């Protein structure tokens, strides 16, 4: 009878070795879960930064499309574009402006000043930064064959013969290329 009690007591408990194995396994599971949570947090933050940058790009692209599409009298080369046009509604300024898109240091800059015909006092342009960390900004101009110079050109000099399309290639400082932006100036404006 005494033997039965001792046998039951030994079978109902855990040995020290079994407890150490369970604690080790629980520790490894905890470490794996902590690493997974940390990885998920970093991935979440990275995705938020990407979405914010993409939102900034979309806003810049929309502004550029709007002002180039409504512009006229285009002149430019591979590094800058100048024309006369209206500003976006968000700027809350009406009338025509001399607008220039260019790269200044590592920023994409939009500058404008009121457009005057005839003599006027010199006016300093207003500048605003459209995007930071830009390593390359290039413009290309597409002319149709009836404009005496068909195809893509790197220079647009004649304000009377506007390009049919204007392409903008942007590369950020970290080497990423923005999706290409191609804008067609309004046809109605080109005939005036």
Give an account of the 3D structure.
By secondary structure, this protein is an alpha+beta fold. The protein has one domain (48-190). The chain contains three helices and nine strands. The protein has helices at 2-11, 16-69, 187-190; strands at 72-76, 80-85, 97-104, 107-114, 126-131, 134-143, 151-153, 165-172, 181-183. The protein has a five-stranded antiparallel β-sheet, covered by helices on one side. A hairpin with a 3-residue loop joins strand 1 and strand 2. The model has no long low-confidence stretch (mean pLDDT 80).
- The overall pLDDT, averaged over residues, is 80
Largest pleated sheet:
5 strands, antiparallel
Q: Estimate what percentage of residues fall within beta strands.
A: 25-35%
Work out the count of structural domains: 1
The order of strands across the largest sheet is 1-2-3-4-5
Q: In percent, how helical is the residue content?
A: 25-40%
What structural class do you assign from the helix and strand content? alpha+beta
Outline of the structure:
The protein is α+β, with helices and mostly antiparallel strands.
Any chance you could write out the topology, listing elements then pairs?
Blueprint: H1 2-11, H2 16-69, E1 72-76, E2 80-85, E3 97-104, E4 107-114, E5 126-131, E6 134-143, E7 151-153, E8 165-172, E9 181-183, H3 187-190
């Amino acid at each position: 009878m005494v033997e039965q009690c001792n046998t039951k007591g030994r079978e109902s408990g855990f040995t020290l070795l079994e407890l150490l194995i369970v604690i080790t396994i629980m520790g490894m599971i905890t470490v794996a879960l902590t690493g997974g949570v940390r990885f998920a947090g970093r991935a979440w933050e990275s995705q938020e930064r990407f979405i914010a940058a993409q939102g900034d790009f979309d806003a810049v692209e929309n502004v550029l499309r709007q002002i180039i599409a409504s512009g006229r009298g285009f002149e430019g080369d591979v590094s800058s574009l100048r024309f006369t046009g209206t500003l976006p509604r968000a700027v809350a300024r009406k009338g025509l402006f001399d607008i220039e898109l260019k790269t200044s240091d590592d920023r994409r800059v939009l500058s404008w000043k009121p457009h005057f015909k005839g003599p006027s006092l010199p006016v300093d342009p207003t500048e605003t930064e459209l995007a930071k960390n830009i390593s390359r900004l290039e413009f290309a101009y597409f002319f149709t064959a009836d404009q005496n110079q068909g195809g893509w050109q790197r220079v647009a000099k004649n304000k009377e013969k506007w390009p049919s399309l204007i392409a903008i290639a942007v590369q950020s400082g970290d080497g990423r290329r923005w999706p290409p932006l191609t804008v067609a100036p309004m046809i109605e404006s080109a005939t005036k």
